[in-house]
Amino acid sequence: MTIAVIDNGSLEPAATRNLRAVAATLSAEIDTIVHPVSWKHSDRIVLSPLDGDAPGVTLAPFVRAHVAAGSRHFVFTPFFISAQGAIGSSLREDLEKLQREHAATPFEFTFTSGLADAGVISQIVAARVRATISVAGLDRPPVLVVDHGGPSPTSAALRNRLADEVRAHLGTEIASATAVSMEGEEHPHNHPLLADALATLGASPTGAPRDVVIALLFLSPGRHAGPGGDIAQICGTAETALPALRCHLTDLVGTHPLAATALAAALRTTITRLHAPLSA
Predict the structure, then answer these.
(1) Residue 280 included in any domain
(2) pLDDT digits (tens, 9 = 90+) for 89-118
(3) pTM for this one?
């Protein structure tokens, strides 16, 4: 059995570093090698930003190399907010194509359950919001729970449910918790967009400061949720247009220790169920 934790992939070195950190934690937790693998992109990162490490590993070369070495069963732990949307479907399609490619040396693949199944995401987000409130000294701020936004209503429904759970966790510590998306205005389920919600919240008739916590439904730093990324730029634009507005971004979901703990538990459950020998 060959085990990997798999994310979407990014051209940002920080995302690959975080995936490797999670893989290392999982390897220690289950006492066997867990490989960090990206679906796409990360093999294109130049080496210098990764401090001389090996380039990122992507799905197709990873599977081909391990099938050639004799692997016949892969277990993938999804490092996604939700593996049930468009990305999850496309990922499975790519693995099925690889199965057809290796018809002479057939292999199987299994996915463990993910963070959404473990029920820990809203706990992590609530903890991140509390930390942001404490550091900034805020008093019952409104919270915007923001995801990427995409074509899948399933992902949007999860975002909405998580926002409701965050509201329940935090209670009177916050004024409100609203689900928003970074982009995807062409799909009604992505509304309200982050920019529109900020415009509404930042309109202060008295000119008094208006603090808003931006709770990030993202696992790793990257083009969207990293420093200077898309969300930071959207917030900066809103603050420029609305001088009373002050945005406070939380830390990420995937860097919280509870994320790796939940994924390790999912791996143990799957390995026990499969009753297969482990290999590197």
Answers:
(1) no
(2) 889 999 999 999 999 999 999 999 999 999
(3) 0.90
